[in-house]
Specification:
Blueprint: E1 2-7, E2 12-19, E3 23-31, H1 37-41, E4 49-53, E5 57-58, E6 77-79, E7 82-83, H2 96-102, E8 106-109, H3 113-123, E9 126-131, H4 137-146, H5 156-159, E10 165-167, E11 180-186, H6 191-199, E12 202-208, H7 213-218, E13 223-226, H8 237-246, E14 252-255, H9 257-265, E15 269-286, E16 292-304, E17 314-319, E18 325-330, E19 335-338, H10 353-365
Helix pairs in contact: 8-9
């Protein structure tokens, strides 16, 4: 099945389609993870984006019902060098091709993903379209011009839960004593964040992103976690307002988009990165200790720490690739956040200690 990928600057890549037959529009980004494609596909933070895997062979271990980070795939399209025709894993229940077709995700394979990645690194992330039915460049370029972009668009409302729920979802599970009650504001939360909170001794309640601060406080939480999520943080004004009203009243932990929300809530600004950080090999330095962790990342925007006016807020981490801010903290306001993903899923587990740090912060103010 013929397929093309057309970028907004007119660059065209020809290949073969897989997954759903049709068209997919989104911002084209690349992910450097070697494994974990199923976790990447089901990460709600990729809503609005077409993801390119830099590792050349994808799909070789199939998919299963356990290695998911949400209830379904959220990305707009998927780009790989070679889709494996063999799936070899005892846990596999479906091929990647069948999985994407089931959830209506358009894919393209057989293109030079190295050339595409280099082009994005040089020119910056840009809008693109994958098509398996229309191959006319001019036609696709016109459709691209009319397609929505990430800046200024609230994508959180697309991925947040419709109603609150308790984690874990499994009915039968060994019940351990839970000391801390944590309310998670779901901006597109990954299941692995909830798993880590559960394993850290927390009773986890997940609420929709539009939940107001007063409603969160009525649940009497020991702490609040602002989750990851997709798109432009500045467009999600209701979450920014909720975060602003919660600051200082309860311990807060922000992850990725949640980190950006805290920066905005305290009067700072965010800006769009040239091609974002997406992958499982980003070195991040903790400024206080000098320790370096290899981290999992997935974001296209960043907090300008110089714009945060609150004197009690300090930058805690820095990305060693480009020196962008990767964390902030305010002991006075009882909060901290990181731009990367300490829960991994996929990626290294170097930063999972942050969940322990969150429980210690809640213990201090309990």
């Amino acid at each position: 099945m013929k397929a093309v990928l057309v970028l907004e600057d007119g660059t065209v890549f020809e290949g073969a389609g897989f997954g759903k037959i049709g068209e997919a529009f989104g911002e084209v980004v690349f992910n450097t993870s070697i494994t974990g494609y199923q976790e990447i596909i089901t990460d709600p933070s990729y809503k609005g984006q077409i993801v390119t895997m830099t590792y050349p062979l994808i799909g070789n271990y199939g998919v299963n019902e356990e290695d998911v980070e949400s209830v379904k795939p959220w990305l707009e399209g998927f780009v790989v060098k070679e889709l494996s025709t063999i799936r070899s894993n005892w846990r596999s229940t479906m091929s990647l091709d069948d999985y994407l077709n089931k959830y209506n995700v358009v894919g393209i394979q057989g293109i030079d993903t190295r050339a595409l990645t280099r082009h994005i690194r040089t020119q910056g992330a840009m809008q693109g379209v994958i098509s398996t039915k229309d191959f006319d460049k001019d036609s696709l370029m016109n459709k691209l011009k009319a397609a929505p972009r990430l800046e200024g668009v609230d994508l959180v409302k697309e991925v947040t839960c419709k109603q609150g729920y308790e984690w874990p979802l499994a009915k039968k599970r060994e019940q351990k004593e839970k000391r801390f009650k944590v309310v998670v504001l779901d901006c597109g939360v990954k299941f692995n964040i909830l798993r880590h909170l559960d394993e850290s001794g927390c009773r986890v309640s997940v609420v929709p992103a539009a939940t107001k601060a007063s409603e969160v406080l009525k649940l009497n939480p020991d702490g609040v976690l602002l989750s990851n999520g997709p798109g432009d943080p500045a467009a999600v004004t209701y979450v920014i307002q909720t975060a602003r009203e919660l600051i200082g009243k309860v311990p807060i932990f922000g992850i990725c988009l949640g980190h950006q929300m805290l920066g905005l809530a305290m009067g700072g600004r965010t800006y769009k990165l040239k091609f974002g950080h997406h992958g499982g090999n980003h070195p991040v330095k903790e400024l206080k200790s000098g320790k370096v962790a290899i981290t999992s990342q997935n974001h296209g925007f960043n907090v300008d720490m110089k714009s945060v006016p609150t004197k009690d807020v300090i930058m805690t981490h820095v990305n060693l690739y480009d020196n962008t801010a990767e964390g902030l903290e305010s002991k006075k306001l009882k909060l901290f956040s990181v731009q990367y993903h300490p829960e991994a899923g996929p990626g290294p587990h170097d930063a999972s200690v942050l969940f322990k740090n969150f429980t210690e912060l809640m213990r201090k103010y309990a």
